[in-house]
């Protein structure tokens, strides 16, 4: 099926709910646009825009767009790789695999950077010799509705990493919000999306709709908050191990791990073993961990990367240099979350420049 | 069956109440251990020695000093619970002032008061097997510590920042999104990021995380509107001594 035009998103949300999906999309919660379960299109943050800068996030009322804001602190990671999951239980010395929680979720309003991050995650979790079957199940249970970024944030740089602002693939449906009159261009990204779109009240997209949609992406590309020159970054980091810049960054770095928690590609976990007081069962749980915690690199009782400088260097070097060696791609998708949600406002783009 | 004892020194009772607050899990605890000595719950004084002693409160009197020696002698494992027992508590504010002056203002006959110049953590006086932080402690962590000691394993009590729990829980960062002063980045997790979940900044009641960079945080807190006096107050509320020089940074 070809592209179509929708006047409202309610039929889409309704059709997904009828098919058993919980529809999760952007909502205003405590002054932040978060991803939560939607009842109807009325829950969407119409006319709300975010201001994002290093260490600063504020919501304002601006315009009439439904998707007039940039990346939320929630990426797709929260659904594909949840903060905590049970791996197995042990009863009387016999392991019992834990059931994978993979609810059917339709994510509405996923950005191109998030889809790029999902492709990175696929390589990490499924590409190696030991694929993560729980990840595979959770990912298969997702229905992905992308949206073209119209208003990039002040910390966005997906145009530099080649991962946005328009989604090319990896979605079931892609929306572009158009104005004058207000409507959505919908493009199916596969059979599942085409089947759903065919069931919605829509009209065929005209050349003018397609042209206007291209303009939305092009305008967003021209309004990126940040620009990163990726040329030579991989080598620069590999050669910059002893740079004095690391210590200077460490003087500002809180080693709080916020950057890694909001990063859509950071995948590191630890496992915790618990014992029940009730029935003597034991349980192994996987939870998000970070290269910024000391326990993460504990070997023989002591951390290998004890200084903040060593931990920051590990993170940035992995993301932009050794990730290529390990997975054949860059680990960064230009979403800017680590810059916005760093309480200290450490800007990776500035730091990469200073490492020159 | 293992014997459990719960002791109290200078404290408010909130941490030992956490054990009673376990409600749903309390019967499981009682099924696994003999709660031999727990005056908050029962006037029975089961005889020692005890396999696990939970000690609440700081050392503030000569009597406390004697008691903690006794507690250590009758306990196979001694676990201190809460900011008082692990860091001296709110009452360690005396460490920065003259306690005799306080007594003269508060009591009609200050000469009746036998108190030490300083409020100190239990670990300053006897060997401690594990310190569980918080003001008060977290119920989930208390059950974890009891379970770990019964199973003979290391308790899973991470020393990283509150931020890790905050992000896992899906809280908005109150510092970044609201400009609310928050000690989360320098404070040890364990509470489940309780205050930020209600749009409050962290007050640091779990004490410093494993690698606190207070100087860096203080620069941000000053930018968020805290003056030196306010900074000093927030660091000196629950963990007067353990944040060390943070308040002066």
From TrEMBL, chain A:
Q: Which GO terms describe its molecular function?
A: iron-sulfur cluster binding; metal ion binding
According to the entry, every stretch annotated as the 4Fe-4S ferredoxin-type domain falls at: 242-274, 320-352
Specify one Pfam family.
Answer: Fer4_22
* Record keywords, A-Z: Iron, Iron-sulfur, Metal-binding
> Out of the domains of life, which is the source?
Bacteria
Ribosomal protein as a keyword of this entry, yes or no, is no
InterPro entries membership = 4Fe4S_Fe-S-bd, 4Fe4S_Fe_S_CS
PROSITE patterns linked: 4FE4S_FER_1, 4FE4S_FER_2
- Classification via PANTHER family: ANAEROBIC SULFITE REDUCTASE SUBUNIT A
- Could you tell me what this protein is called? Sulfite reductase subunit A
Identify the species of origin.
[Actinomadura] parvosata subsp. kistnae
Automatic annotation (TrEMBL), chain B:
SUPFAM superfamilies (UniProt xref): HydA/Nqo6-like
The record, for InterPro entries, names:
Hydrogenase_assoc-protein, NADH_UbQ_OxRdtase-like_20kDa, NiFe_Hase_small_N_sf
Q: Does the keyword Oxidoreductase apply?
A: yes
Query: Out of the domains of life, which is the source?
Result: Bacteria
Question: What are the entry keywords?
Answer: Oxidoreductase
Residue ranges constituting the NADH:ubiquinone oxidoreductase-like 20kDa subunit domain according to the UniProt record: 12-148
Molecular functions (GO terms): iron-sulfur cluster binding; oxidoreductase activity
Gene3D superfamilies documented for this protein: NADH:ubiquinone oxidoreductase-like, 20kDa subunit
Please name the PANTHER family in this protein's record.
COENZYME F420-REDUCING HYDROGENASE, GAMMA SUBUNIT, F420-NON-REDUCING HYDROGENASE VHU SUBUNIT G
Protein name in the entry = Oxidoreductase
